[in-house]
Amino acid sequence: MAPDQGHISASVEVYEQGEATERASDQIAAECAVALVYQGISHAVMMASPMQLEDFALGFSLSEGILQQASELYDLEIVEAEQGIRVEMAIASERVAALRERRRSLTGRTGCGLCGAESLTEAVRPIKPVVAPQLSASAVQRALVALPNHQPLQQQTGASHAAAFCNSQGEIVLVREDIGRHNAMDKLIGALQGSTQPLSEGFALISSRASYEMVHKSCAAGIGALVAVSAPTAMAIDMARQAGQLLIAFARPGRHVIYHNPHGSP
After folding, report:
1. Residue (of 103, 227, 209, 233) closest to 165 by Cα position
2. Between 20 and 30 A from 166 (CA), which of 50, 102, 119, 189?
């Protein structure tokens, strides 16, 4: 699968009420294994949409604390392999040393690698404080209505998530899509590194639930407000409170629910 190809065509047979009605061509979301490699160290393999992988690699590196700032990424190369795609990165020597130390601390543990009492601090990292904007209901609703028109992969395949950054008026500034909600957020964070848009003055709008990871990643990027179309988790609400992030969920046209507002109740 070539990079930046988000979907493929497939021949399908359509059944209605138990009977074959037609053969048609369907657009299927592409999915492949993407290995993120730092200075020869393979750190993570993610199943992702093979598109905008430069944004994905940079955003993941920042949101997971591997890099502290975008300038610490010196070079990036996308290499197609038989089993998937490798994103090979050259990063600052200090970050390489920290990454090696992190990996050494996990060596010899059984299970998933982040299980066990010793790894809880690593699994649930401290969250970065943010400055929450004061958003109007009309701004949130404006972005919600506009989002579907910024999701070409979802329109073609019905199988992708979106993460959008919107300004304080609810205008969509930038959108990234992926089969994975975390990946979409990481792609958005990576793409925003080249933007002059003040992240503390707008909000992220996601087509998924508001989980701990989505709150943590958006706060790591300095985004002061997160709006999700689906439910929040209890941990996401708790982390938003700790960070001072405005958290809105169950956001649908005509209705949304505020779960944490640093400027007032709840």
Report:
1. 227
2. 50
Contact criterion met (CB below 8 Å) for 85 and 35 = yes
* Cβ–Cβ under 8 Å, residues 186 and 162: no
Whether the link from the prior residue into 266 is cis, omega within 30° of 0, is: yes
DSSP 110-123: -TTSS-SGGGHHHH
Per-residue pLDDT, 123: 64
CB 39 within 8 A of CB 55: no
Residues at the binding site are 250-255
| Residue from 217, 185, 209 nearest 52 by CA | 185
Tell me which DSSP letter residue 52 carries.
S
How far is Cα of residue 55 from the mean position of the Cα atoms in its chain?
A: 10
115 is catalytic: no
Q: Which domains does the chain have, with CATH numbers?
A: 32-123 (3.10.20.10), 137-260 (3.40.140.10)
State the pTM of this model: 0.90
Residue bearing tokens 């001072």:
244
Catalytic residue among 112, 115, 166, 219: 112
